Automatic annotation (TrEMBL):
It comes from Clarias magur. Keywords: Membrane, Receptor, Transmembrane, Transmembrane helix. The lineage of its organism: Eukaryota, Metazoa, Chordata, Craniata, Vertebrata. Gene3D superfamilies: Rhodopsin 7-helix transmembrane proteins. InterPro entries: GPCR1_Superfamily_Member (IPR052921), GPCR_Rhodpsn (IPR000276), GPCR_Rhodpsn_7TM (IPR017452). Residues 88-343 form the G-protein coupled receptors family 1 profile domain. The keyword Membrane applies. This is G-protein coupled receptor. The keyword DNA-binding does not apply.
Amino acid sequence: MEALLQGRTERLFMAAEDFALSLLCTFVDWYNSSGQAERLGRQFAQTNTSRTAMELFVQEWHIFLPPQQMRVIQLCPILGFLAVFLTTPILLARILIRAHLRQQTRYLLLANALFSDLLFVALYMLTTCLNTAAVLMSDVACAAMLFLMGIFYSGGLFSATAIVLDTSLAILAPLRYATLWPISRTYAAVFTIWLVSILFPAASVGLFLWYHRMSPCTQHICSLPLVLVLTVSHSKPLQVCMLLTVTAVLITLLLVVAGYVILYCHTSKSGVWRGERSSRAKGTFLVHYLHLFLSVCPMLLLIIELLFYSYSSELHPSAGLWVSLVLCNILLVLPKALAPYLYGLRYRDLRGALLDFFRLNRPTAITPVCT
């Protein structure tokens, strides 16, 4: 055991010793392939300032994008985290404190989805802040953060899928629902969701580590957009693995949409869409469809980007960086930030807690009865 720990420690020290060399290698490969190394060399030759390779790499990050637009894009994950942090703890506390809510499958699955989204947005906000501050890390640490983000993102998607299955079963088999899906199976479903979420991104992160161990260059600025531009665009196995993973996620989301279409066709025959109940039913379906649409859009864009990397080698780094930043910082975070507001304001048992927190719950006037 001591020999094993000593071997791991030696490997970590060796990775730390290769820090400067791998950073310089990444810098040279990126800018030589983009065709801007010569222009930037003339630019820095005119300044007559001595800079290290680390300082050059950090400064070159702002060459491809205007500083103001870059700040706006990097501000989006922070705003998304603030939006989620204001509401998700309130909804989670409401569900976990109330005993009758803890005994309902839909609220447990919703709590699991909101908890996964909160962890994902918080971790992505942390990586964005570290990237903005030019904090460098090893490939193992970066792979660990990417792996955690993959787990939390998958957990939210699979929880949404479980909510659809639960709703479908409650509508299609109302008399046998309590027997087919008791509360004990809900806890088993939550455990299965986390287990599948752990296994889902494992292949992509494993190939990420393999790629950097087989190559003399390692990734030190841990940013998901940079990983797509610098790593995925140059690794065919990683492109294929991510393409299969994203395709599986997209198929899962499309199955969720198909489930809601089936529910709509089934409930339209029972008169749910007529009378006073139609407005509430339409609002519920609208919330689910909007959330699913916002979740499908980044998956489609990511597939298109991966196909560009696979079949076209002429994509300019600045264009790839723009697409990756918009995809990761805006489209991935947006449905996570809106989910607690959409579901919290839709469910009656949760709406009051949100309105009370934002001081929007007006007290009902009591009219005295004259006798």
